[in-house]
Amino acid sequence: MLTRANLIDRECRRGTIFARMKDMQKQIALLQSRVKYQRVLNIVLSVLVVMLCVGAMKPYGVITCDGWNVQDKNGKARITAFTRDDGGACMWWYDMNGRVRMDASTRVNGYAGLQVYDKAGKQRVATFTRDDGGSGVAWSDANEKVRITAGNNADGVVILPVKDLEVAPAKDPPAAK
Q1: CA–CA dist 71, 96 (Å, integer)
Q2: For residue 34, what pLDDT band results from cuts at 50, 70 and 90?
Q3: Is residue 175, in this structure, part of any structural domain at all?
Q4: Residues 94-114: pLDDT tens digits?
Q5: Residue 159 pLDDT
Q6: Using the 8-state DSSP alphabet, how is residue 122 labeled?
Q7: Is there a single domain that holds both residue 12 and residue 77?
Q8: Tens digit of pLDDT for each residue in 111-132?
Q9: Which of 26, 31, 128, 174 maximizes the CB count within 10 A of its CB?
Q10: Which domain holds residue 53?
Q11: Cα separation of 159 and 137, whole Å?
Q12: CA distances from 63 to 31, 77, 84, 133 (A)
């Protein structure tokens, strides 16, 4: 039954609930403003840390060394670069078995070259320039015997000698069906 005491008690409870809800809304608003403040603070601090790290890094200009190696994950050298005692420079590329497969070099006498080796480690192709201005390329067989060379001399003479090479006769094309 509704009595005056019950109504007053109900209104008091309702007022208390509304007051509590208003307090909770204030607390939520306060927490939201703190979260916004912390987000801004985190961004500002992150930018400052990045700026300090970038400012502390010194970029490398020129690295000077006598030689260097690039190694695979097993610690085997795959690329080696070095300077010779006479002032020339070399770079070697290795296969997975540790054999040199390609090398590029320069020498103080004006020679520059690039050699390619087969999987047995034998030189098959060599390109070069000479100190007199000539240049060329040489192809070798599996025994490293030079078979074909092509090049030019400094005086403009072009050469294309073939050595000990047997030319097989051309096969007849298959008959048309």
Answers
A1: 11
A2: confident
A3: no
A4: 998 889 999 999 888 878 899
A5: 78
A6: -
A7: no
A8: 889 999 999 989 999 998 887 8
A9: 128
A10: 1-59
A11: 10
A12: 54, 20, 18, 32
103, 93 Cβ separation under 8 angstroms = yes
CATH number, domain of 146, equals 3.90.930.1
- Taking alpha carbons only, the member of 149, 152, 148 closest to residue 135 is 152
Backbone angles phi, psi at 112, to 5 degrees: -140, 140
Structure tokens belonging to residue 149: 């060379």
Residue 117, judged by CB atoms within 10 A of its CB (0-12, 13-18, 19+), counts as buried
Q: How many domains does the chain have?
A: 2
> To the nearest 10°, the Cα dihedral for 137, 141, 146, 148?
-50
How far is it, in rounded angstroms, from Cα 148 to Cα 110?
23
Query: What b/e string do you get for 100-111 counting C-beta neighbours within 10 Å, with b at 16 or more?
Result: ebebebbeeeee
Percent of the chain topping pLDDT 90: 16
94 burial via Cβ count (<10 Å: 0-12, 13-18, 19+): buried
Please indicate, yes or no, whether the overall pTM of this predicted structure exceeds 0.70. Answer: no
Residue (of 131, 138, 136) closest to 157 by Cα position:
136
- Hey, how many other C-beta atoms are within 10 angstroms of the C-beta on 99? 13
The SS3 assignment for 28 reads: helix
Closest C-alpha among 139, 80, 129, 122 to residue 107 = 129
